Amino acid sequence: MAQDLVLLTRLFDLLQWLLPKAERFPRVHRHTVTLRLMNAALDCQEAVFAAQSTRGQRRQDALQDADAALNRLRLYLRLAHRWRWLNDGQYAHVGEQVAEVGKLLGGWIRQSRS
Q: Which one of 23, 30, 100, 113 is at 20 to 30 Å from 73 when CA atoms are compared?
């Protein structure tokens, strides 16, 4: 229970940092890459909420959905950095946040399998 609360807190912190940054990405990409990046971050948060309120196979499915959304978020963040929408410091910061979320999520997935 405490682990999922820490995960939700870390995801909230990630969203709180990322969403204002994403709003500053180039306007021409706002309805494509930026939208997908924001959706991936929000999808991950929603899947963790769903996992928190379910048990058994439904929890496993929700956790896998969260993991898939986190992987999509990693992809879009790499693109944002490559295209210089995020500078090196911003990319390092968000990378640390995503890595911590990934570790917490991976631990919860392993714990719920046993």
A: 113
Other C-beta atoms closer than 10 Å to the C-beta of 61 total 14
* Residue 76 and residue 23 in contact, taking contact as beta carbons nearer than 8 Å: no
- Which of 55, 52, 100, 47 has its CA nearest to residue 74? 100
Q: Return the structure tokens found at 14.
A: 């990630």
Distances in Å between the Cα of 38 and the Cα atoms of 43, 55, 81, 83, 87 are 8, 27, 15, 17, 18
Residue 103 sits in a domain of what CATH number?
1.20.1440.60
Q: What is the mean pLDDT of residues 3-15?
A: 91
Residues 10, 13, 17, 20: is their CA dihedral positive or negative? positive
Assign 54 to helix, strand or coil: coil
Q: Residue 73 in contact with residue 101, Cβ under 8 Å?
A: no
- Residue whose entry in the numeric block shows the structure tokens 């709003």: 23
Q: Compute the mean pLDDT over every residue in the chain, rounded to the nearest whole number.
A: 94
Domain extent at residue 18: 2-113
Q: What whole-number distance in Å separates Cα of residue 24 and Cα of residue 26?
A: 6
DSSP for residue 28: G
